[in-house]
Amino acid sequence: VQLQASGGGLVQAGGSLRLSCAASGGSFSSYAMGWFRQIPGKERTFVSTIGSDGGIRYYEDSVKGRFTISRDNAKNTVYLQMNNLKPEDTAVYYCAARRPLSGLRVGAPSTTGGSYDFWGQGTLVTVSS
After folding, report:
1. In the prediction, which pLDDT does 105 show?
2. Confidence grade of residue 62 (pLDDT, cut at 50, 70, 90)
3. Closest to 3 (Cα-Cα) out of 88, 89, 99, 109
């Protein structure tokens, strides 16, 4: 499975961006998907995750009410709509895919980076004050 993240850029505080992550190969509709971010010199941290059918979504507390994760299984793509961006949202954003565990049909959403099987290359989001 290959994941290609895009949509990052430079935006002023209060602005919006929509990140996309296109998957190729594998069985996208069975994967849980996640977004993580990393500030240089710091560990990668959880942002949001979504179940295979989009019915379950979790968010990191600081982005609740501002970010929305969604997916289009027909397009093998997961999105992260980011509104009311703040300078502290500046980071490289990574998408990740989690396969179903043995015996299950779909992957469960997870806030733990170590539980994901595939990672995209990252897209830089810079929010200026």
Report:
1. 85
2. very high
3. 99
Of residues 105 and 125, the one with the higher pLDDT is 125
**What separation in angstroms does the CA of 82 have from each of 51, 58, 87?**
19, 14, 13
pLDDT of the residue at 80:
98
Kindly state the DSSP code that residue 65 receives in the 8-state scheme. T
88 contact partners, CB below 8 Å, separation of at least 6: 62, 127
Does the structure show a pLDDT above 90 at 39? yes
In the chain, beta strands by DSSP E: 2-6, 9-12, 17-24, 32-38, 45-50, 57-59, 67-72, 77-82, 91-98, 118-119, 123-128
The torsion region of residue 22 among left (phi > 0), alpha (psi -120 to 50) and beta comes to: beta
- Residue 46 CA to residue 128 CA, distance in Å, equals 22
Q: Kindly report the CA angle at 78 between 63 and 21, in degrees rounded to 5?
A: 100
Amino acid at 50: I
- Checking if the pLDDT of 21 tops 90, the result is yes
